[in-house]
Records
---
Amino acid sequence: MNSPSENKQPDLKKGLWLYVVVNGFTMIGSLLMAVSFAVLLMAMGADFISPISNNYALTILFAFLPAIFLFGFALHVFGIIKYRRRKTDEVGVITQSLGNVLSDARSRKIIFFSAFAFIVSLLILSAAGHRALIYSESREFCGTLCHQVMGPEYTTYLDSPHSQVSCVECHIGEGMSSFVRAKIDGIPMIWEALHDSYPRPVPSPVHTLRPSRDTCEKCHWPSKFHGNKLSLFTHFGEDIDNTAYNTVMVQNVGGQDPKTGEYHGIHWHVSSNVQIYYEALDDKREKIGKVTYKSGDKIIREYKLADSDDSKVHETRLMECVDCHNRPSHIFGEKPAFSVDKAMVTGVIDASIPYAKKAATAVITDTNVSRDHAEATFKTRLSAYYAAEHADISISEAQLSTLAAGVAKLFLRNIFPENNVVWDTHPSHLGHRGGDNDERGCFRCHDDKHTSDDGKVISQDCDLCHNLLAEDEKLDDLAEPIKALISSHKEK
Ligand code: HEC
Ligand code: HEC
Ligand code: HEC
Ligand code: HEC
Ligand code: HEC
């Protein structure tokens, strides 16, 4: 490195120049600043003419370039400080020349110009930073930048009622502190993604999720009266015709009754004057110990399990929206047969193909299938399945292809073997889907076993939550009014 001037005479050009090339640090710093700034300007120009839609390009350009610029600046300052410490005698040159600068008209112009350039660069940097920030809040950023990591959540999200709600509205909510926390929490995640060390599957529940009142309740509100909701569940038989069976029920969702002001029904749990606290006995919140029903500070009732072990309590939670609606956006298939039913209702799987339900369920249950070759794998499996089980019927090549395409589509929507997301990895709490002896969803508490001191239980009475209008009936056997209701209702 060339040492600065031996000449102690204040030299304007040298004085200013010194700032740039005092030593290696300032030189590299200047270089980084100049290059990153130039590239940033070009990138912004390009983005202005035709907005960049490539994730990686955007992130690198608008988040990393300003970061590099600031890093260059920091190096530069560091270099000057280092220089000052080491060569105090030379400092005179700089300060003196600065004194000269201020008294000289031409130099004042230079200073003025530099200040102007500095402000403009700040503006440009913050514009780029802002673009990066807005982008970092977008669903594309959250869902696809770490494609492999968020693949399962992003895929299901796009196919959910909330596909137009951005990730941050549920995961981060409003407010500066949660924003900053989310960004800080995100740093180790980026590290994990880069090092391929992220957890598979991404664990659920999300213990750091904001309370529902800061997220869900910005758009929905607990006092809304939903009244009764008609729901239809269609399941298909394993016969050659895939006979459809319908269960029709009115779910007693309730809410605050506009006439009486009282809360009742399923949404009673989130009434303004009711608090339900529960002790989770495992990390997944699948096993629930003591349940306390409070109203304000007053304990109304405590329900306990006879064999519950207090030392196992993982956390005590106040029940809120996500304790039932834990899958508002990432709704994964839980059981192969039920998922095939849904796919047949929506036409993804063609219900006119003989034994489609049975065959599709048989081949999709084993999830050891590469996502890249799903369709080919299922075609081979289906062909073998029909040959082994139903050699008596003839299945055309076209039917086999159609069925394989449908099964593959269902598979790609729900199963992510590389992320260890398979059937039942992320079960929903809404209902009770574990089959016989069900202890899941609502039945975690409503099991007739959680008992209070005065002998009440949290009820499993079949009419508490819904009225079954028809159970497993063929369409033709349903009463006319129910048929009419069904045809006017979206299928579920
Ligand atoms: C409607 C609200 C909502 C939206 C929108 C949403 N999420 Fe979620 N997300 C949730 C809830 C609720 C959970 C589960 C919380 C729990 O069980 O603790 C969750 C869980 C997750 C998990 C943990 C793994 C799992 O499946 O439980 C990841 C990862 C995730 N979300 C990513 C995303 C991404 C990426 C987006 C945007 C593309 C997004 N979320 C959009 C509500 C939402
Ligand atoms: C930014 C607004 C917004 C936020 C935040 C939001 N939702 Fe929604 N939610 C909607 C909209 C809009 C719909 C209606 C979608 C439709 O009708 O297709 C909806 C629909 C729903 C439904 C009905 C789904 C169905 O099957 O028809 C439920 C349940 C729900 N939201 C729960 C939640 C929960 C739980 C949260 C918090 C984790 C949440 N929402 C956060 C806007 C939001
Ligand atoms: C005790 C469990 C439980 C809690 C707590 C709960 N819900 Fe629900 N909610 C349900 C059930 C069950 C349904 C009806 C089933 C469905 O829509 O799939 C429902 C339905 C809904 C619907 C759709 C209504 C319709 O007519 O389509 C919305 C929106 C909703 N809930 C929002 C919320 C919000 C917001 C919260 C928190 C303030 C909340 N829920 C708390 C169980 C719950
Ligand atoms: C954390 C425990 C817990 C879970 C999970 C739970 N509940 Fe409850 N539920 C209770 C308690 C406690 C009561 C009140 C018992 C009492 O009256 O003392 C109750 C009462 C009810 C009532 C009667 C409300 C009224 O009008 O008085 C309905 C309906 C109900 N629950 C539906 C559901 C549904 C549907 C689900 C699942 C989506 C569910 N619950 C999940 C604890 C729970
Ligand atoms: C604590 C509330 C609650 C109780 C008690 C309850 N259920 Fe349910 N049940 C639900 C909810 C909520 C759903 C809807 C789940 C969904 O939206 O997918 C449901 C769904 C069902 C379904 C349709 C499932 C399907 O896929 O076909 C049947 C059948 C059913 N319940 C039967 C019963 C019977 C029988 C009992 C009495 C032993 C009972 N339920 C008690 C809350 C309850």
---
Amino acid sequence: MALDMNGQGESTTEEGALRPHSYDGIQEYDNPPPRWLMWLFYAAILHSVFYVPYYLWGYAKDIATPQTELAVDIAALDALKEGSRKANPPTEVTRGKLSQVVKKPDAIEAGKKQYATTCASCHGAAGEGLVGPNLTDNAWIHGGSPQEIHKTIDTGVLEKGMLAWGKILPPKTIDNLVAYVVSIQGTKPANAKAPQGDVYQGTY
Ligand code: HEC
């Protein structure tokens, strides 16, 4: 007895339930899944026809899709960053009073600590240069005035691997780093990397 695909008839493995076809002498029994399972299967297919456009393709404007959720998260993050910028307003350096900050011992000290954790890996423990250039000589690729040093640290040189630290560290910390970099000018550390760039003629 042959059974149809919808599970009409009884499930059986009796000889009589063999399906008529035969491949290389191999035959199969007809054991259709139970009817309730087939209905569940069809219902799931039908459900997906509505579910996919509605939730995944965003046809429902009021429903959060992964894309809209991401946009909301990014907007929230931007707002947070903006808030943090406001809470840490640019200090003297960015307002052009840099020459005062670079002479403050506490700024230099704070900058030194920060330098050891974030900068030494590329510029050497004493600023002698490693992957990044020597920061103790008077040659500068991006200019050696305190304002220029500040700009390099703040906005980075992304294509060379120098990050825009202004996006990562608060403005005051950047100021301290400038103070530290200025303080190590002319210290001639061991294993110093050869000078790169133009000699800075100005004073600090
Ligand atoms: C991943 C490595 C890396 C780290 C970490 C890094 N730098 Fe740099 N930095 C570089 C490279 C590479 C350059 C050279 C860019 C170029 O060739 O234009 C550079 C350039 C500079 C310059 C300009 C030098 C010049 O000659 O004009 C300054 C100043 C500087 N870095 C300071 C810092 C400070 C301060 C930190 C820590 C907050 C830091 N760097 C962290 C890789 C790094």
